[in-house]
Amino acid sequence: MADQSEQNTFGDDFLMFLAGGCTVLGGVVGLWLALAYGSQEEILRQFVNDYVVDRLIDYLVWSAPLIGMLLGSAVAIIVAMAWKFGWRACKWLTRRFAATPAVPGRKRPATPSPLRDNLVDGNKVVAHLDAVLDKGLRLDVCVAYPSVEGLGRLAQWIDGMDPNGRARLLVGSMPRNWTPLHPSARAAGHFMAKHLDYDKQAIPVLERLAGHQEAERLELCVRLAVPQLHAKLYAWIDAQGREGALIGSSNLTKAGLNDQGELNVVVGGDDVQLHAHAWFEARWNEQAAYPADFSDALSALHESSSM
After folding, report:
1. Which CATH superfamily is domain 116-306 in?
2. Quick check: 60 pLDDT over 70?
3. How many Å apart are CA 73 and CA 79, to the nearest integer?
4. Which of 64, 231, 234, 300 is the S-S candidate for 190 at Cβ 3.0 to 4.6 Å?
């Protein structure tokens, strides 16, 4: 339907411009005749009388309807062009200067937008999470895919949280074409190394996260099951004890948190936030969610680099 509408619009525009072009061309030809023979009025008058007026009179039965049709077409073209471009101008002015969208029944929002999309500097996902997790008490993250940069940001969040603050990370999507023969905690560690493409640059970040795990400030679970879990959820308790969550499309990656256009909604203090926390607990306690150690991921990464 959309393609057909676009084709119809293109056809209308083409016909309008064709008709307008013919009108302009006729005007240009007439202007050229006037300028070329304007100083020779008698010659022009004789030419018009002999070759135009006489022919029209001789064939009046055919020429009169033809002249009427041409005049009618010219008027129709002028009216149609005025309507088409006038209507477009009115719509543009309405969009440009209207205080609210011209949608029946839709009201202007009374509260600040809870959406975070990374499209403008003041609406970055990472900036929002940085703010709510400063001295925060709790962080639960469920993502399909973490990157080295995203794990580095997780380590930074934990560093900035309350000394008694705790974080949990649930990774839900297995690497492509990779299935563990015997799901286990150690397999989950190798899963993380595979997820990071055995990148040696991940070693310092994994060492920091392993340190947080050893200090019992971070827990890791890896979901080794099909169907894979493609959800993205960041749930927290901030320094004042307020609970909230960010739900949407942002993975724990530099692109998802900062660079790439995403769409996430921030919820808090309502049933949606409570449902989000309950959902995370249910996924965390699934049989397919294997507790894992970043130290195992480090070992797998070192093994791959020594081969």
Report:
1. Endonuclease Chain A (3.30.870.10)
2. no
3. 10
4. 300
